[in-house]
Amino acid sequence: MTLPIQLLAATFLLLGTTAHGTELRGHGGVVRAIALVASGGWAITAGFDSRIIIWSLKTGEARDVRLFHKSQVNALVALPNGRFASAGADGRIAIWQVGQSLPIRILEGHTGPVAALAISPDGLMLASASWDKSVRLWPLSDGEPRLFKGHSDNVNAVAFLADGTLVSAGYDARIIFWSRAAQVAAARVILPGPLSTMTRASGDRLFVGGMDGKVRLLDRSRVIRGESQAVGSPVLTLAASPDGKYLAVGGSDAIHLLDAANLAPVRIVEASGDPVWSLAFTPDSKALLSAGADYVVRDWSVETGDHVGAAVTGSSDPMAEFAGIPDAEVFRACVACHTLHPNDGQRAGPTLHGLFGRRIASVPGYRYSPSLRDMDIVWTEETVSKLFELGPNTYTPGTKMPEQTIKSADRRAALIRFLKRATATE
């Protein structure tokens, strides 16, 4: 992910003042991308469940869920003025304003999945890389988009150098530096194998990750300055630390931290065995945010490789009042999106206060998916159990609710016992 230069300082300051250790839970599939919106203190995540979730970094609450893309969302990038862009396997790019439920602009033209986005240093142009073998450059104000063709296979990554030069990398093993005056390749670098991801660091250095698990360092003169067998499987994501010291590499089973100067291994930051799809450093370069196949966004100590804190606990934990109640733990995955008390308001999902006996899509003031309003469902023990047995996409198609199932009948029964106690109106 590449942020415009004018947003970097504010975003870093924001993250530096956020209490580390808060786990962001709410997706029902692999979390593929993270973007940070400096104005307002929002984090935005997206993934294979097609959901885009907007989080408050101060509280860890999911404040809104956006449904637009027809399938998985592959890329997010922050834009100036509290906006952000999303792109997915449906080939479409949506421009969003935080606080508005529908895209303010839709960019169409790609005929294959969009794999990556980048914003120009001046914040005026959006670049997209697609599996239709093309790169496109979209003006964010007036002007026609520009099409760049030169790759012979899927384009997986795109970035801008400090002077606005556009660079792309693809499965064809090519890195292309595009001419700023014409829509042609100014220079090419051909590497030994397919390329999966790329990020720019200070000093106009480019780190490129490959399907062979290797990371290579190039400078703007297109000379390869270093190479490392970072992981034993394809490199899925890269992040460079603000202080220029480190490069974080996400692979199929761990996060590896490298010395950014020579790509020497420093330590394994996290090794859960799950693929890591997105990474971002905090401003002091002491913590690293990660997201991936376990559906959770976390942060890690760069110095020790340990998880910084744990899930929110104590007085800030919305589940604190239910401490010691075993049934309550089944609900913990839901608390980021739903409140239990009438005065707590709405989050990404409607309040659950008074749930049982309530008709679906009937909480006043909540913006439901249109498809839910015509459903003839009343929430009872049986219907709530069926929701989690079959999954929201099957039982309530068109819902904004992240896909999740509870296959164990005992755990579904525990959730229902908890909800009947916690959401009662008397």
Automatic annotation (TrEMBL):
InterPro entries: Cyt_c-like_dom, Cyt_c-like_dom_sf, Cyt_c_1A/1B, WD40/YVTN_repeat-like_dom_sf, WD40_repeat_dom_sf, WD40_rpt, WD_LIS1/nudF_dynein_reg. Pfam families: WD40. The keyword Heme applies. Keywords: Electron transport, Heme, Iron, Metal-binding, Repeat, Transport, WD repeat. Residues 313-423 form the Cytochrome c domain. WD repeats lie at residues 24-65, 107-148, 148-179, 269-310. One of its GO terms (molecular function) is metal ion binding. Transmembrane segments: none annotated. CDD domains: WD40. It comes from the Bacteria. PANTHER family: WD REPEAT-CONTAINING PROTEIN POP1 (PTHR44129). This is Cytochrome c domain-containing protein. The lineage of its organism: Bacteria, Pseudomonadati, Pseudomonadota, Alphaproteobacteria, Hyphomicrobiales.
